[in-house]
Structures are given as structure tokens and as C-alpha cells.
Inverse folding.
């Protein structure tokens, strides 16, 4: 009897302690201890719901699991064109060549020490650890005359062709004939608007395309003293080097002010000759120069992106591309970006008005909820994730399975007509 009393007291004490001190799994499953999404993903979710026009109280959002997020790198192009006093923004994104599972810092959720996941296990990521290195543009060449404003490049190397200590550079002036190779840049943008004259192809040279003709026009304007120099902003370059490794083609550096230098070519460009017409000097360009895109001389007329943008510009201008006139480029920005792709689902209750006009069979249960699946392509910008494109994704269609008695209209075998097959002489 005494042993039974002790057993009952011990059981009651165990229930009291279990009620006061819940298990660790219950602590981890609480929203305060383990938030469902990182802040960047929560902000992305709110931006998408507002963009789709849904009300938060009438829909249920599922998904946005960072363990399923794919990360890739690609180039983004942004242009603002002013045509007939109308501003036309153009945004282009290159296709991501490779998507990977990468554990970005913005995906991390701060958890207390020893925290477990919903299964009571120590969370282990299946993704690669991010090296926190921003994507960069491929090396490209710039030719003068122009000015380059440098941003976020305190440890930039200058090679002309030998390394030169120039200190912290903020501005580099490229003289006419000077060509440099830029490496490690994260973005290149236009600092001031540029005017272009139409028609699109004003060159009589057979090698020049529409954009090459505009580049030739821009180069002639830059050599004019009355026209301001072409000005570019480059973010994060790691080095500026002469385009040629030959000592004969090295560049000469001249300090103009703290953080400001000028680069000029020691030898004149062999591909151009100078002639005098009426007392004025003009530069005669060779066919090779008509196939390169000034000031980015590493691009030629056969570049796929260049040809695609030329077709886009021709379609935007329409008939104006062959007429006399002008248009202005207000903004031009090319940047290497990190993109993220993640899927999510939306569930919304259906109203009676939503079912009007839909013919459902009598045997089928009418749906009361609508489920939609989406995939968002977003740009990772520091601690923010900005949605770029939201696409509707159609899941695998389900086929209805109907019983045979439903197809025959629930008719019993006793009501079916009796059909006598024809007699056969082989029948016993």
C-alpha cells in the first residue's frame, strides 16, 4: 500500500515538473525562438504580396524556404532613353549560366546556443558556404579621350606596363590614344547624359553598324574642346593596366592633383594617321576601328549583346532611326549582380462569384480554395533582396479517376439488355 502511494506521488510530481518546464523542442518551435524567415526573406515576401495585389488577411503564403533557394550571378543592364521628351526606361538581365545552393549571410537566422530545428536535430545546411566575394565584370578595355571616376578602390594597382605607385586614385584622365584594361570592376555607369544624332547609321563605311556609327559620333564629339569629355563611374576596380604588354606601348603618368592623374600614350597609335585639310587636323580611321565600340574597345561589331541591343534600339526608335533628329541617353549602367530564385505558394478562399461560369460534374466536389504556385527572381543587394520578376508556375496536372459505374450512370446489370452472340459451329 505504501509503495503504491509513493508511485502516485512520484507521477504527480513528474506531471507538475513537465507542465512548468516544457521540453526543449517546445521552446524551439515557438516563433520567438525560431523565426520562420530571415528578415531579408520576410521583406521579400511582403513586397511580393503587395505587388500581386493580395490582401494579407485573405491569402495564405507558403514556401520561401531558404534551404531551397538557388543563387547565381549574371549581368544587368539599365538604360534611360529620352525620345521626343519622353523617358523610356530599359532593363535587361542576362540568363544565369549556373544556379547553386549557396549559404548567403542574409539567409542566416540567429538562434540561441544549442537550438534545435523542428525535428529536434542540430540544423545542418546542405548549401555551400558563401565566400562573401561580390561578382565582377570580365576585364574590358577603355580608350581615351575620356575621364574615369573611381569608387571603392583603395587598393587598386596601376601597371603601365610596370607597377606604379599612384596612391589612392579618385579620378583618371585618359588622353587621346591611351588604352587601359580594367579588371575587377563591379559596375560601370554613365555620369552625364549624352546626346546622339539620327539617323542611326550616318557612317559611309561599310564596316560600321548602327551602334558603331554612334560610337564614332561620340568619339568625334569628345575630341572637340567645346564638348565635355565622356565621363564614366567605375565601382571597385582592382587594377588599371596598359592594353599592350610591349614596353614601346607603355603609358605615361602625370599627377594633376591629389587623387587625380592623367594617362597618355608615349607612342602614337599606329592604326591611325593624321592629315591636314584646310589647316585643320583630322584623324583617318582604319576599317578595324570601325568594327570596335568606342570607348569600350574590347567590344567589336560581332558581339552578341551589342547586336541584340542594336535591334532593340532600332525597334524602339522605329521610323525615327532613319530620319533626321536626335535622342538622349540619360542613364547607362552595367553591373555584375547576385540573383536568387525561390518558389512559393499562395492559397486563397474562393467566393461564390469565383465559381460562376465553371461547369463541374455533379459527382465532383466543388473546390473551396484556390492554390497557385509562383517563382520569384530577385536581386541580392547587400542586406536586401529586391524582386525582379514573379512568374506563375503550373504544377503537374492531375488526372481525374472515375469509377466505371459513374460513367455508365449507376445502371445495374439487371437493367442492361441481354445480347446473344452469334452461334458458332465449334460450340459444344
Amino acid at each position: 500500500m505504501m509503495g503504491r502511494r509513493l508511485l502516485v506521488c512520484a507521477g504527480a510530481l513528474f506531471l507538475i515538473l513537465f507542465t512548468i518546464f516544457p521540453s526543449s523542442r517546445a521552446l524551439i518551435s515557438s516563433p520567438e525562438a525560431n523565426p520562420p524567415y530571415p528578415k531579408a526573406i520576410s521583406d521579400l515576401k511582403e513586397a511580393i504580396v503587395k505587388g500581386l495585389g493580395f490582401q494579407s488577411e485573405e491569402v495564405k503564403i507558403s514556401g520561401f524556404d531558404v534551404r531551397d533557394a538557388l543563387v547565381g550571378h549574371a549581368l544587368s543592364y539599365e538604360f534611360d532613353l529620352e525620345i521626343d521628351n519622353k523617358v523610356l526606361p530599359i532593363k535587361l538581365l542576362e540568363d544565369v549560366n549556373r544556379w547553386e545552393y549557396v549559404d548567403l549571410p542574409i539567409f542566416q537566422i540567429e538562434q540561441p546556443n544549442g537550438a534545435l530545428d523542428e525535428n529536434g536535430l542540430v540544423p545542418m545546411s546542405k548549401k555551400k558556404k558563401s565566400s562573401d566575394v561580390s561578382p565582377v565584370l570580365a576585364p574590358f578595355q577603355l580608350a581615351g579621350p575620356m575621364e574615369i571616376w573611381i569608387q571603392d578602390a583603395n587598393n587598386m594597382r596601376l601597371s603601365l606596363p610596370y607597377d606604379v605607385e599612384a596612391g589612392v586614385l579618385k579620378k583618371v584622365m585618359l588622353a587621346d590614344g591611351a588604352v587601359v584594361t580594367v579588371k575587377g570592376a563591379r559596375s560601370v555607369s554613365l555620369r552625364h547624359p549624352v546626346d546622339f544624332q539620327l539617323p542611326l547609321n550616318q557612317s559611309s563605311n561599310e564596316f560600321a553598324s548602327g551602334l558603331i556609327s554612334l560610337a564614332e559620333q561620340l568619339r568625334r564629339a569628345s575630341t572637340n574642346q567645346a564638348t565635355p569629355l565622356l565621363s564614366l563611374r567605375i565601382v571597385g576596380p582592382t587594377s588599371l593596366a596598359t592594353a599592350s604588354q610591349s614596353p614601346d606601348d607603355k603609358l605615361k603618368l602625370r599627377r594633376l592633383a591629389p587623387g587625380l592623374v592623367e594617362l597618355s600614350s608615349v607612342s602614337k597609335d599606329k592604326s591611325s594617321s593624321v592629315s591636314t585639310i584646310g589647316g585643320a587636323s583630322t584623324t583617318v580611321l582604319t576599317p578595324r576601328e570601325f568594327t570596335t565600340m568606342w570607348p569600350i574597345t574590347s567590344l567589336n561589331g560581332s558581339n552578341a549583346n551589342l547586336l541584340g541591343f542594336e535591334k532593340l534600339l532600332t525597334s524602339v526608335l522605329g521610323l525615327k532611326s532613319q530620319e533626321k533628329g536626335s535622342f538622349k541617353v540619360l542613364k547607362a549602367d552595367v553591373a555584375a549582380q547576385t540573383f536568387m530564385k525561390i518558389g512559393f505558394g499562395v492559397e486563397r478562399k474562393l467566393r461564390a462569384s469565383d465559381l460562376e461560369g465553371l461547369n463541374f460534374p455533379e459527382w465532383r466536389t466543388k473546390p473551396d480554395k484556390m492554390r497557385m504556385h509562383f517563382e520569384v527572381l530577385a536581386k541580392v543587394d547587400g542586406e536586401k533582396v529586391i524582386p525582379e520578376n514573379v512568374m506563375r508556375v503550373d504544377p503537374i496536372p492531375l488526372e481525374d479517376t472515375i469509377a466505371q459505374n459513374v460513367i455508365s450512370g449507376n445502371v445495374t446489370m439487371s437493367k442492361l439488355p441481354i445480347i446473344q452472340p452469334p452461334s458458332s459451329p465449334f460450340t459444344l
In short: Helices lie at 2-20, 24-28, 39-52, 210-222, 304-317, 404-407.
